[in-house]
Amino acid sequence: MTEQTGGRRVVTNMNLSLDGRYARPDDPQDMSWVMPYAVTDVSRDHLTSLWEPATTALLGRVNAEGFLGFWPTVIGMEGADPRDEAFAKWLVDTDKVVLSSTLGEAPWERTTIVDKPAAEVAADLKATEGGDILVLSSASVIKALLAADKVDRLALTIFPVFLGGGPRLFDDGLPAGRWTLVSQATGEHGTLALVYDRVR
């Protein structure tokens, strides 16, 4: 499956509310609505299945600051779930590409700062050797890749809450196309993990 398109896949991962939002309308940085669901077995196993075949993390600046500010602190944390700790280690050790027009140099190890459109960066990365290119919850990056039809695998974790407003992941005007469901899992609190591959 992986080898069909010359190797590397662009894999995007996003948490969504049941009404299709990825952030609250009043405070996009407030992720408290995600927390009860993010610590479920289905969410942790879903994330593990995504990062294990990946060798590059592609992030927007805001998400990079959030992820890389938090996850390294999980390593060695008392009582940490082994899956969380394994993801944290992967994130620290893997190659990271951060899209930013404002960061001059990376404050994190193994990180390259790139000021180019997401679709161009994804195409450049796909032309190199390696495993999957994983876009971790960076909405602006995922939206740009979807608009350019550059997503090979779309991973979604859907939480059974309505946020009642806020930004949507799927904007009108996306390229028409078919997707095939490759995995689905349900878990505690009605959490639903879905993975779709782009049919080309």
Description:
- With 200 residues, the protein is an alpha/beta fold.
- Helix content is 28%, strand content 26%.
- It has 6 helices and 8 strands, in the order βααβααββαβαβββ.
- It has helices at 35-38, 41-51, 61-70, 82-93, 118-126, 139-147, and strands spanning 10-17, 54-60, 95-99, 111-114, 132-136, 153-159, 178-186, 192-199.
- It has an 8-stranded mixed sheet with strand order 4-3-2-5-1-6-8-7.
- Helix 2 (41-51) runs parallel beside helix 4.
- The longest helix has 12 residues, at 82-93.
Total of helices: 6
Q: Could you describe the largest sheet, including whether it forms a barrel?
A: 8 strands, mixed
Average of the residue pLDDT scores: 93
Shape: globular
**Share of helical residues:** 25-40%
The N- to C-terminal Cα distance equals 12 Å
Cα radius of gyration in angstroms:
16 Å
The number of E-state strands comes to 8
Strand content bin? 25-35%
Strands across the major sheet, in which order? 4-3-2-5-1-6-8-7
Q: SSE order, as H and E?
A: EHHEHHEEHEHEEE
Overall SS class: alpha/beta
Q: Quaternary arrangement of the chains shown?
A: single chain
Query: Which blocks of ≥5 consecutive residues have pLDDT under 50?
Result: 1-5
